[in-house]
């Protein structure tokens, strides 16, 4: 049937001059312009099917950088690209803003943040020598040094380096202004925070040397504070012998061993080492000025006694506390805990509290238990994984008229999460919201609750998002585990916009290890075979944009994954993104190029081959070698351009490195379909014989295939018959399969089948029994190549069964 759209109609459509149709329900003025033409047309509002305007495309949340940190990131990026850096005054202000924010909010400095701070400081010092103080005053440097806090288990080299840079610069400025003694800040003011930074960043021995050097003249006014920092750092580094040596040095220098130092050492052996003998030794060590052990020391020691059932010695501590007639609630709280640990029931603890009240009334000091005592008992029950007793203590507090506080609800959340009562944990959280929480002490437990909720098989999505919204309103910090768990939920639900918002808000606040943990969640989603390819590609794009530091090994794994999904175009894009990296360490190597070309060879994708080959030509950092030539030869051969593939054989032959066994194998394979390829194969074979190179079974099979590809049946038969005499290999499944696969046309394949079935029945049967399709390994590329396609085996199997029948 002829089309109703004539040439005239098409011409009118091109010139936008369609006439209106009387049967069309749309008014002509809406959908066409007749002869009247105007230079400009009014904007037409696009509508959906029901006439409502479309919602604007959702924009991702901006990345949540801490003050000043974005500018320091920008500096690092520009330096890596060799571009002009931001103005120095802006960089200095960003440096100050960053550490001022850390100091005000008492936040830790992550290792990645410390690295960028080092880069910014060194850049300013190097490029702004002509500016006094290179835009940073001494007070600002002291502020940064004082704000340099890190977690106990960090021991970051970046923190250590930054602290050294700041202290060295302060020392230089001190020496330069030595004449002006009125404005000179005491050295101890800089030494104390520097010693703390050294102690807490894995360099406690160096910090001890500093204390020894400056103790007599500059640090005695600091009392035991610097020694306490050194000891604390040594306990974090777990250097037992150095702790004892430090204590000996302190004794020689007459440093008072006060209850603060006593607390550091005793708690180390009690909590970290769990060493009862040394705990006893240091707990019983005399304390200066007749001071008693602190409440925290007693609590840690009694806790160790409870854990190791050392009640006999613990009783001596308990009795000494009673003999001193404790007149403060903290000591009584420890007494209650000890009694509970020894098996006193909740009712007996209640009677002890009544005794405490009676004694307080007799002394006229108004001593009464409070909710803190109940909370300590709940904490003890939690440590023993006894939620039933914990609940009874909560009931006891209510009976005594104590009002539960924030810590009560936190402890309830803790034991309910442990036993999997997430509903009860949520109830405790709801009650917690009515309380005042100091210093965000609830955040670790809320993060644990979020992770526990996401780990359930049947997730309560609304409850999870309710918690997330509560924390987001508070602008609270999410732990890396929490972000990883939430990212997994968003991925499973296909909520990519929410995932981007989550990562932009939190991922840039973490250190390298924490970022890697979150990134691995996205990586697993990409590599999971059950993930649909469009979803995997979208996840990959989020990963590469958020985690720009992803190493080349991970990116190569992603590239191979898309090759395995038969999406060589996506895999080539992944490779292209590697090429665009600014850091040389993240750019593809020769091996990466070879692996990419190997994947293109499997796919037979000419367009991707041209793209990657052009990248090779333009990459000045790549020096072609045999491995790369092998990959190019294989790729061009598999993309139907065997003649071009053999040109790389000539390059290999004239290279300094020379051919490998894989080179010979690939070249012979290319000879199968190249014009006059049998002549090239004979030339290769002649060289192998001339130089007495050992011929492997795979190379000989490829040599047979080179002639089979040109339909030289008799020649192939002769080669297989003479195989044992020529190279010492009996005819096997590899030779027969190569012969069958390479020869063109179904009639010739039938001829090969009939000959093989009669001449070498055992080898032919072996071919049918093969459970793998990989007969050739190309070790140079690190890839297994399918020399025989799967289709050939299916076909051979069918023929064999028919013949047997």
Automatic annotation (TrEMBL):
Keywords: Repeat
Pfam families membership: PPR_3 (PF13812)
Transmembrane segments: none
PPR repeat locations: 625-659
Family: Belongs to the CCM1 family.
Function in brief: Regulates mitochondrial small subunit maturation by controlling 15S rRNA 5'-end processing. Localizes to the 5' precursor of the 15S rRNA in a position that is subsequently occupied by mS47 in the mature yeast mtSSU. Uses structure and sequence-specific RNA recognition, binding to a single-stranded region of the precursor and specifically recognizing bases -6 to -1. The exchange of Ccm1 for mS47 is coupled to the irreversible removal of precursor rRNA that is accompanied by conformational changes of the mitoribosomal proteins uS5m and mS26.
Subunit and interaction comment: Binds to mitochondrial small subunit 15S rRNA.
Name listed for the protein in its UniProt record: Uncharacterized protein
Organism: Lepraria finkii
């Amino acid at each position: 049937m002829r089309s109703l759209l004539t040439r005239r109609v098409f011409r009118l459509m091109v010139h936008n001059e369609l006439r209106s149709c009387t049967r069309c329900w749309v008014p002509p003025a809406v959908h066409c312009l007749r002869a009247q033409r105007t230079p400009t047309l009014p904007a037409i509002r696009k509508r959906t099917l029901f006439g409502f305007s479309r919602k604007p495309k959702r924009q991702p949340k901006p990345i949540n950088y801490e003050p000043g940190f974005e500018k320091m990131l920008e500096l690092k990026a520009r330096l890596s690209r060799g571009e002009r850096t931001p103005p120095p005054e802006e960089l200095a202000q960003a440096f100050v803003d960053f550490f001022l924010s850390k100091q005000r909010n008492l936040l830790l400095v992550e290792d990645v943040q410390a690295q960028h701070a080092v880069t910014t400081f060194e850049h300013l010092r190097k490029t702004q020598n002509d500016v006094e103080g290179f835009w940073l005053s001494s007070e600002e440097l002291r502020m940064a040094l004082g704000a340099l806090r890190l977690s106990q288990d960090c021991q970051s080299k970046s923190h250590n380096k930054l602290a050294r840079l700041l202290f060295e610069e302060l020392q230089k400025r001190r020496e330069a202004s030595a004449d002006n003694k009125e404005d000179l800040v005491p050295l101890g003011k800089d030494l104390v925070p520097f010693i703390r930074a050294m102690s807490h960043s894995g360099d406690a021995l160096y910090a001890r040397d500093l204390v020894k050097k400056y103790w007599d003249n500059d640090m005695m006014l600091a009392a035991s504070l610097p020694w306490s920092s050194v000891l604390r750092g040594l306990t974090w580094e777990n250097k037992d012998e150095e702790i004892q040596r430090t204590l000996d040095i302190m004794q020689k220098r007459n440093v008072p061993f006060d209850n603060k130092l006593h607390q550091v050492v005793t708690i180390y052996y009690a909590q970290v080492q769990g060493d009862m003998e040394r705990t006893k030794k240091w707990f019983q060590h005399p304390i200066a000025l007749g001071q008693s052990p602190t409440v925290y020391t007693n609590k840690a020691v009694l806790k160790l006694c409870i854990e190791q059932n050392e009640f006999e010695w613990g009783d001596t501590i308990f009795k000494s506390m009673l003999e001193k007639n404790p007149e403060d609630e903290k000591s009584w709280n420890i007494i209650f805990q000890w009694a509970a640990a020894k098996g006193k029931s909740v009712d007996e603890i209640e009677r002890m509290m009544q005794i405490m009240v009676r004694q307080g009334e007799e002394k006229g000091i108004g001593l009464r238990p409070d909710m803190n005592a109940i909370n300590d008992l709940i904490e003890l029950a939690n440590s023993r994984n006894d939620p039933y007793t914990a609940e009874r203590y909560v009931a006891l507090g209510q009976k005594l008229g104590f009002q539960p506080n924030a810590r009560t609800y936190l402890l309830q959340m803790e034991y309910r999460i442990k036993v999997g009562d997430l509903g009860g944990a949520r109830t405790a959280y709801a009650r917690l919201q009515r309380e005042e929480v100091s210093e965000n002490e609830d955040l670790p437990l809320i993060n644990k609750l979020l992770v526990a909720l996401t780990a359930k098989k049947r997730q309560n999505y609304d409850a999870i998002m309710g918690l997330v919204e509560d924390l987001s309103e508070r602008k609270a910090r999410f732990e890396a585990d929490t972000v990883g768990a939430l990212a997994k939920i968003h991925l499973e639900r296909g909520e990519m916009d929410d995932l981007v918002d989550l990562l932009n808000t939190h991922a840039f606040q973490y250190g390298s290890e924490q970022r890697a943990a979150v990134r691995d969640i996205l990586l697993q989603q990409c590599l999971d075979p059950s993930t649909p390819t469009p979803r995997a590609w979208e996840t990959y794009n989020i990963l590469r944009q958020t985690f720009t530091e992803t190493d080349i090994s991970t990116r190569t794994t992603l590239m191979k994954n898309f090759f395995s999904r038969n999406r060589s175009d996506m895999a080539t894009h992944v490779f292209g993104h590697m090429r665009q990296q600014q850091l040389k360490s993240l750019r593809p190597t020769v091996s990466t190029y070879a692996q990419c070309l190997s994947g293109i060879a499997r796919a037979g994708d000419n367009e991707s081959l041209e793209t990657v080959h052009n990248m090779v030509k333009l990459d000045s950092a790549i020096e072609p070698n045999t491995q790369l030539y092998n990959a190019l030869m294989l790729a061009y051969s598999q993309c139907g351009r065997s003649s071009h593939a053999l040109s790389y054989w000539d390059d290999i032959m004239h290279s300094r490195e020379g051919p490998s066994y894989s080179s010979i194998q690939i070249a012979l394979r290319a000879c199968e379909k190249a014009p006059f390829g049998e002549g090239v194969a004979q030339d290769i074979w002649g060289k192998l014989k001339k130089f007495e190179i050992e011929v492997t079974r795979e190379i000989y099979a490829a040599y047979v295939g080179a002639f089979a590809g040109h339909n030289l049946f008799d020649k192939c038969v002769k080669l297989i018959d003479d195989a044992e005499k020529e190279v010492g290999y009996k005819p096997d499944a590899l030779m027969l399969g190569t012969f069958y696969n390479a020869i063109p046309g179904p009639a010739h394949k039938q001829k090969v089948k009939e000959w093989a079935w009669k001449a070498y029945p055992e080898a032919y049967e072996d071919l049918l029994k093969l459970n793998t399709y990989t007969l050739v390994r190309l070790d140079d590329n690190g890839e297994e190549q399918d020399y025989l396609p799967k289709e050939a085996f299916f076909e051979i199997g069918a023929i064999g069964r028919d013949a047997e029948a």
